Amino acid sequence: MISTDLEQISLQLESENSRDRLLALASLRQVSAEDAVPLIKKVLDDEILQVRSMAVFALGVKQTDECYPILVKLLETDPDYGIRADAAGALGYLQDPRAYEPLSRAFYEDTQWLVRFSAAVSLGNLGDVRAKELLLQALESEETVMQQAAIAAIGEIRAVDAIDEILRFANSEDWLVRQRLAQALGNFNTEKSISALNFLAKDGQPQVREAALFSLNLLEPDN
């Protein structure tokens, strides 16, 4: 039964109809990684960008030893910046510590902000403290989404010595930045973070208040 299903999915991936190929990729959610990855590889060079994007994402979810080198190659060489960004995101899902180096290079060297943004997010997912200096640089970006990613990632890597750098965003004009800050501070049980969360708990934006209160509930002042 399983082999029949796999054969059907394989045939769908060869369909001339891109919708069939997308449906086939979606159906791989119920398939083991070992069986899914060879099928995913069939459409990594698909002519339809949406199909390629979904396939790249799938490699981050269906994890085998093959996925890491494929994703790194896509991140470093694919001509489409959207696919490079997808590859960076998928590397974060893998949570493979080897991804620190290619993600760092992508952040510093790629000319597209979306790729750099995705790399910053994934570096946070890795939880690697080596990313701290890179993320501090990302805080200086004029793109508020990059600031959001950097603040969240600093929280995820628990870089407690970077608290002062992110606290300056407590008065950001962008409420999403303040929300990310409130969420990130939930990773730091310090007097400064608790004080900032009490401040954000009175924010004019309800989403910021909710995030701050949630983080406060996670923390208890050090005795």
Strand content: under 5%
Distance between the termini: 60 Å
Major sheet summary line: none
User: What is the gyration radius calculated from CA atoms?
Assistant: 20 Å
- Protein structure class: mainly alpha
Please write the string of helix (H) and strand (E) elements.
Answer: HHHHHHHHHHHHHH
The oligomeric state is: single chain
Low-pLDDT residue spans:
none
Number of strands: 0
* Total count of helical runs of at least 4 residues: 14
Q: What is the helical fraction, as a range of percent? A: 55-70%
Protein name: Phycocyanin alpha phycocyanobilin lyase related protein
GO molecular function: oxidoreductase activity
Keywords: Antenna complex, Phycobilisome
InterPro entries: ARM-like, ARM-type_fold, PBS_lyase_HEAT
What is this structure's SSE topology?
Elements: H1 2-13, H2 18-27, H3 33-40, H4 49-61, H5 67-77, H6 81-94, H7 100-109, H8 113-126, H9 132-138, H10 144-156, H11 163-167, H12 175-185, H13 191-200, H14 206-218
Helix pairs in contact: 1-2, 2-4, 4-6, 5-6, 6-8, 7-8, 8-10, 9-10, 10-12, 12-14, 13-14
In words, what does this structure look like?
This protein is an all-alpha fold. It has a domain at 1-64. It is 68% helix and 0% strand. The chain is built from 14 helices and no strands. The chain has helices spanning 2-13, 18-27, 33-40, 49-61, 67-77, 81-94, 100-109, 113-126, 132-138, 144-156, 163-167, 175-185, 191-200, 206-218. The longest helix has 14 residues, at 81-94. The radius of gyration is 20 Å and the shape is elongated. The termini are far apart.
